[in-house]
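Re: your question from the hallway

Yes, I did run it. Sequences:
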Amino acid sequence: MNVLDLGNSMETYLVIAALLFGMGIYGLLNRRTMIGMLISAELILSGASINFMAFGHFLAPDPTTGQIFTLFIMGIAAAEAAIALSIIIAVYRNFKSIDTEDVVELQG
Amino acid sequence: MVSLFTAEGLTGLVFLFIVAVTVVGGIIATSSVRLPRAVSGLAMCLIGVAGLYYFLNSPFLAAMEMLIYVGAVCVTIVFAIMLADPGAEKKVGRQGAISTVVSVSVGGLLFWGLAILGTTTMWPAAAVKVNEGSIPEIGKSLLTTYSMVFELVSVVLLLAIIGALVLARKGREV
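Structure:
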């Protein structure tokens, strides 16, 4: 298969979406600050959206379904980002840090 | 076989560039130490994702991705970084080796499994397309088939705005 023809096959988009998802999981596990974890969560949501868009474009009988689902994911992600950032600011006010290891109060 | 010096070949070249922007942006977003750099990587990655949406025959979603993610979410994250001063410099080298190995292997395994699953499955194509997926069709189904979900997302966004205000406001005068 030609490299220049990759944009017309669904598998390309599925692999890119899986790559974004894997990178998001890696960042979510590896990051120490809450904002870094939020950035990784956005990458995971982007991977899911690309999957929906690819299936909606190539396979679904109604191509609007995938686009509308992606729009809803965008709305929910915006709400999630607003809530998470306000929680981060509240945590910073109480602990003077957003490092996930500094905000542990109950040491087992 | 697509030649490079045709319209399809140049389109393929642009597609490869967009894929490169997405992947490099994602790598910067997840592996840079300083958070402002990570946010820039996230914005780059999301611009690439908007390009992918354009290639998936949906310019409306591409514009929404630029507006909502690149224009709103990334700027909000930058505001939070400025308000909450992460002090990224002192975190250099504090990541444990075990944590890195575990994260890389878990993320890599998930990517590998999903990529194998996506490329080897024989996906059955739909027998008939009921419409073209154009912007008027999106608007129609948004206000007919999916109107309930549309209203619910509106309520969720309103609640998120109020909740964010309450959470960020609390304890300010202490």
